[in-house]
Write a structure and sequence with these properties.
The complex is a heterodimer of chains A (about 270) and B (about 450). Chain A is α/β, with parallel strands linked by helices and about 270 residues long. Chain A is built from 7 helices and 11 strands. In chain A, strand 4, helix 4 and strand 5 form a beta-alpha-beta unit. A 6-stranded antiparallel β-barrel of chain B has the order 13-14-15-16-17-18. The chains are: A alpha/beta (about 270), B alpha+beta (about 450). Chains A and B meet through helix 2, helix 3, helix 4, strand 5 and helix 5 of A and helix 12, strand 10, strand 11, strand 12 and strand 13 of B.
Chain lengths: ~270, ~450
């Protein structure tokens, strides 16, 4: 096909041929993915989160999005891998994470700064020069900027095989202000490496061409429309306990036709 | 030709000084000092004359007591055994070592082996040979090699070789411990860390070369910067594992100084390295290769400079019931010992159902709990109101609780006493709601996700 050949030649000339599958051979075998050790999800993901790619896990609050990323971190640490969590607003809870099976000594936890209206509660190193809490060039933007820089440092070091960045509480406007090159740089840094990057967010942020998009809580939106699927145990008010959340997850990828739906039960875990 | 010196009444440092006065090639083996006497005849004459010079030099340091012993022979083993076994000066002509060793007691061999620490564990050879009626080195040397091997194994053969005056290894010359230190005095003071980077590179490159030659790695780096204010800005940087790559060392020091910068221009830069034996790494094909400590250290230092030291590390659980309690440890690449065996967590953590994927819920903890207004009916929260952006307000659809915990009431300022509730809002968000019982204030503590 002369047209196709011409296009490919032009792309190669401009060094854009990595968009073609011929540039880097498709990784094969069990090392090509980072499995979650959850049978139905791994089947839906064609093995797990692909290494050398940026994937994303998105969904509304309490849809099990964080639990799914923790499951991936737990599975990797159980295999003896070193993992990292870039925790933009310092939301990680180590006791619950340990109860979920994350081997904590194998986790590199990069803690961002939790936002507080009480300035004295914030690490002074994060404050100089900041006048307002929200908006461009403000404290929140500084926190996001440092989280992205940390992600860059971690992926470039090649120390961790699974790197998750938590952007759930980042305002949508702030995410939109991030330059598109941010994610392209991350993608290039891990291309062909053993590292899988997963972005955890409320809404879709970015994904590389070979990465997966995992949409949790399909059919339920932030507006509250749809059945939240929360299950409880116990018949009486006094004996009632939270059981978990049943949701539907849609898994997609650029090289896939359509999406796959997987039913997920997020089981409630109490660290105590 | 080798000379051996033994002088129990003279301090070891004095014997080493005597040895150094004769040759730079000498080795200390406990109280025994072995000299490479090859090529000394031009300076000190025949072996006999050399021996006399050595005896006289030792006698000058003597304080009475046992007279120094000096032995000169063609092998270091023979010289050492003769010095241990015969008083005064002994000089043996080349080729006569075995003959000279014949009358020496077998216990000399035992003493020599203990000094050289040739073999770990209890030495029962002396006891066995004594039981056999072998009292001298000559008698032991005369036993056929295969017979010795059959009864005493490899070690027996090594012993017999020593009894014949054969060297097991070459002399390992003494190396003076020169401190791993370098300094640069500047003609013009420098400001900022960028020019300092070039200076540190100049200091670390020769130091790293010396570390490599000595098979040592840096374990602690002391950096002291004399400032124009006459103050000294000193930093101590402990490293997680021995390393000697000059670029890594420079980067780590620079990142440390970036976090703790000097407050005035720099006049003098001084670097001192505490060395430790080099790292030996044995990789395996059966386990995943772990990242190099140099990579990890550099990453942690860079992250620490960006986020702050307290914001980077590995969490560690604490032995307390206090909700959310943890401590931060320095992040290190852990060995395979931490690997969780398959099935160890299977019943609780790893649940597999065909068709339905089960994962465990996470708790997204608000590190600063969000104060909130809660409407209570019949002891249960029914409505939440908060003005925090991104948090739901409104009626509570369902709730579970209260889960009451308290503790550390015996420590002022650390006590807690509270009720926890898990509440579901109309939009499907599940919050962990907490009321501090002492003050009655409600907080949103986290989101179950």
């Amino acid at each position: 096909m002369p047209v196709r050949a011409t296009v490919e030649a032009l792309l190669r000339e401009r060094k854009l041929d990595r968009t073609l599958t011929s540039a880097i051979p498709e990784r094969l075998g069990e090392d090509a993915v980072s499995p979650l050790d959850v049978e139905a999800l791994d089947r839906g993901l064609a093995g797990g989160l692909p290494r050398g790619q940026v994937s994303e896990v998105v969904g509304p609050a309490s849809s099990g999005r964080t639990g799914l990323v923790w499951a991936a971190l737990a599975a990797a640490t159980r295999r003896g891998e070193t993992v990292a969590l870039i925790d933009t607003f310092d939301r990680f809870d180590p006791p619950t994470a340990a109860a979920c099976g994350i081997v904590l000594p194998r986790l590199l936890w990069v803690r961002g700064q939790a936002v507080s209206k009480t300035a004295v509660a914030i690490d002074p190193a994060w404050l100089p020069g900041v006048r307002a809490v929200h908006g461009p060039g403000t404290f929140v933007e500084r926190v996001i900027d440092r989280a992205i820089k940390s992600l860059n440092l971690v992926v470039q070091s090649g120390v961790c095989t699974l790197v998750a960045i938590d952007l759930i509480d980042v305002p949508a406007q702030a995410l939109r202000r991030l330059p598109a090159a941010t994610w392209f740089r991350i993608e290039r840094a891990i291309e062909g490496s053993d590292t899988a990057v997963v972005i955890l967010a409320a809404q879709s942020v970015a994904r590389s061409s070979g990465g997966r998009s995992i949409q949790m809580g399909v059919g339920r939106q932030e507006s509250g429309v749809g059945d939240p699927g929360i299950t409880w145990k116990g018949d009486h008010d006094r004996s009632r306990r939270l059981g978990g959340v049943r949701t539907t997850t849609a898994i997609g990828g650029a090289r896939w036709s359509g999406t796959q739906q997987v039913a997920v039960h997020t089981r409630f875990v109490h660290a105590g | 030709m080798f000379a051996a010196l033994v002088a129990p009444s003279i301090p070891a440092a004095a014997i080493i000084d005597v040895a150094r006065a004769f040759t730079p090639r000498f080795e200390q083996v406990g109280p025994l000092v072995l000299l490479d006497a090859g090529g000394l005849s031009r300076l000190f004459g025949s072996p006999q004359e050399l021996g006399t010079h050595l005896s006289e030099a030792l006698a000058k340091h003597g304080t009475g007591g046992t007279a120094p012993r000096v032995a000169i022979a063609a092998t270091q083993t023979a010289a050492a055994l003769l010095a241990l076994g015969r008083p005064g000066l002994t000089v043996i002509a080349p080729g006569q070592e075995a003959k000279a060793l014949v009358p020496l007691s077998i216990s000399v061999l035992d003493r020599y082996e203990k000094l050289k620490k040739l073999r770990a564990g209890d030495n029962r050879h002396l006891e066995i040979l004594t039981k056999w009626g072998i009292r001298t080195l000559g008698a032991f040397a005369a036993v056929a090699g295969p017979e010795v091997f059959e009864r005493l194994g490899d070690h027996g053969l090594q012993w017999q070789a020593l009894a014949r005056g054969v060297d097991a290894r070459p002399l390992v010359p003494w190396v003076d411990e020169v401190p791993f230190e370098a300094a640069l005095e500047l003609e013009w003071p420098i400001e900022g860390l960028e020019p300092l980077s070039f200076l540190l590179a100049r200091l670390f490159e020769p130091l790293s070369e010396r570390l490599e030659q000595a098979d040592r790695g840096a374990t602690v780096i002391h950096t002291s910067l004399r400032l124009t204010t006459k103050r000294v800005h000193a930093r101590t940087l402990p490293l997680p594992s021995p390393m000697r790559d000059p670029k890594t060392l420079r980067t780590l020091v620079l990142l440390d100084l970036e976090t703790h910068p000097p407050d005035a221009p720099i006049d003098t830069v001084r670097v001192f390295i505490e060395p430790t034996p080099g790292r030996v790494t044995q990789w395996t094909l059966l386990e995943r290769a772990q990242p190099a400590p140099e990579q990890v250290s550099t990453l942690i230092a860079r992250l620490g400079a960006l986020m702050g030291d307290k914001h980077v590390g590995s969490p560690r659980l604490q032995d307390t019931w206090k909700p959310g309690a943890f401590a931060m440890d320095e992040f290190r690449v852990v060995s395979e010992e931490f690997r969780v065996k398959d099935g160890a967590l299977a019943p609780e953590v790893l649940t597999v159902h065909s068709g339905l994927a089960t994962v465990n819920s996470a708790l997204r903890r608000f590190r600063f709990p969000i104060p909130t207004r809660v409407q209570v009916q019949e002891g249960r929260p029914i409505r939440v109101a908060t003005d925090r952006h991104g948090c739901s307000s409104g009626a509570i659809v369902q709730s579970a609780g209260p889960w009451r915990t308290s503790g550390e009431w015996w420590q002022e300022g650390r006590a807690w006493d509270r009720d926890e509730w898990d509440v579901a809002m109309a939009d499907g968000t599940i919050y962990r709601l907490v009321v501090e019982r002492g003050v009655g204030q409600w907080f949103l503590e986290g989101v179950v996700d």
